[in-house]
Amino acid sequence: MNYAIVGCGLIGKKRLAGLPAGSKLAVACDTNLSRAEEVVKSAQTGRTVSDFKIAVADSQVDAVIVATINSELAPISAAAIRAGKHVIVEKPAGISVKQIDELIALEKKHGVCVRVGFNHRYHPAFQKAREIFASGVMGELMFIRARYGHGGRVGYDKEWRADPKLSGGGELIDQGIHLIDLAGWFLGDFAKIEGHTETYFWKMPVDDNAFLDLRTAKNQTAWLHVSCTEWKNLFSFEIYGRHSKLHIEGLGGSYGVEKLFHYQMKPEMGIPDAKVYEFPGADESWKIEMIEFEEDLRKAESGKRKAEIKGPGLAEAKAALKIVEAIYKKNKRR
To answer: Strand, coil or helix: what is 264?
Structure first.
C-alpha cells in the first residue's frame, strides 16, 4: 500500500512510524516543505509537495493520511475521495456535522474506504477492556465516568487550537471527542445530551473545560470531563457493569503507565476479586490502527459484509461531532 501523508507534523510522523510492513510513503505534503522533507528523509522513500491537490492526485498513491489542523481535514479528505483514494483522516474528521455528511455522500459515491483516526480505541487497555466486556462477565452496563486532561503550555492560547475558525472549538472537540467516541463504543447511541463548557484560565475564545452528561435510551449514563487546566496530565476511564467494573488509567508517557483494573463482584458481594493489567511498553495504538485499516480495505475489496469491517469511520465521527455541536449550541459557542 502506497500512502500520501498530508500534514507532516507530530501526528503525520506518528502515522509514518505506524505504517504496516510492506507499505510505504509515496508522497509527503505540507505547506511547510521542510517538514515534508523531514518525513521523506525518515521514510527513505517518497517525494515532497506543498499542494495537497498534487498529493492526492498522484497515480502512485493508494491511500491518503490526512493529519492537518481541524479546518483542513474535511476539504482534503473530500479531494482524496474524489481522486479515488482510500482515506484515514484524524479525528474529528471535520468541524461540523454538515462536513461529515458531505464526506459520507462522497465515500458512497466513489466506493472508497474512509476511516477516522480514533487511536485511543487501539490502546492495549481498551482492547483488553473490549475483550472482557464482550465475554459477558460484566453484565449489562450501567454508566461510564471518565476524565481526560492536560495542562497546556506557554502560549497555548495563541496556537491554532485556540482559534475557532481553525479548530472548530476548544478542549471538547480536541480531547473530548475521544471520550465521547469511547463512551459510545461501549454504551451505544446517546439519546439525551446535556453539558456545558467553560473558559476558566486560558485567554481564548474557545473552551478550556467541558462537562458532559450523556444518556442512552435506557438511561445508561456517560459522565465526562475534559480539561486543558489539568496541570498534571490525566486519563481515567471507568466502566461500570452490574457485575463488575473496569478502570483504565494512564495512556503512557506523561499520562502515566497504562493500566487496566478489573474488579469482579462476588455472589456474596463485599470486596470484589481484582486483577490488574499493566502495559508499560511504547504506544503501539497508531500501528495497530493502521494494520486494521489495511485489513478493512482487503475485506471491502473482497466484498465482505460491512459488519466484518471493524474500524471506526465517518458514521462514528458524525455521532461524536453531533454531540460536540449540540453542547456548543447550548452554550452559544456556535
So the answer is: strand
Residue 17: the pLDDT is 95
Closest CA to 245 of 264, 273, 219, 220: 264
Residue 65 confidence (pLDDT): 98
Q: What is the CA radius of gyration of the chain?
A: 20
Q: What are phi and psi of 175, to 5 degrees?
A: -80, -30
Cell of 255: 499520562
Q: Is 219 exposed, middle or buried (0-12, 13-18, 19+ CB in 10 A)?
A: exposed
Identify whether 92 is preceded by a cis peptide bond (ω within 30 of 0).
yes
Q: Phi-psi bin for 58: left (phi > 0), alpha (psi -120 to 50), beta?
A: beta
List CB contacts of 195: < 8 A, sequence separation 6 or more: 210, 211, 212, 213, 214, 224, 327, 330
Q: Which grid cell sits at 139?
A: 453484565
22-49 burial: b if 16+ Cβ within 10 Å, else e? ebebbbbbbeeeebbebbbeebeebbbb
Grid coordinates representing 162 are 485556540
Q: Profile the chain (334 residues) by mean pLDDT over runs of 10 residues.
A: 97 96 97 97 96 97 98 98 97 98 97 95 97 97 98 96 97 98 98 98 97 98 98 97 98 96 95 96 94 90 70 95 97 81
Check if the beta carbon of residue 39 is closer than 8 Å to that of residue 310: no
State the pLDDT at residue 299. 85
User: How far apart are the C-alpha atoms of 214 and 190, rounded to whole Å?
Assistant: 6
Reported pTM: 0.96
- Residues 251-283 as b or e (16 or more Cβ within 10 Å = b): bbeebeebebebbbbeeeeeeeeeeeeebeeeb
Q: What is the DSSP letter of 285?
A: H
Residue 1 burial (10 A CB sphere; 0-12, 13-18, 19+)? middle
The answer to whether 7 and 36 have CB atoms below 8 angstroms apart is no
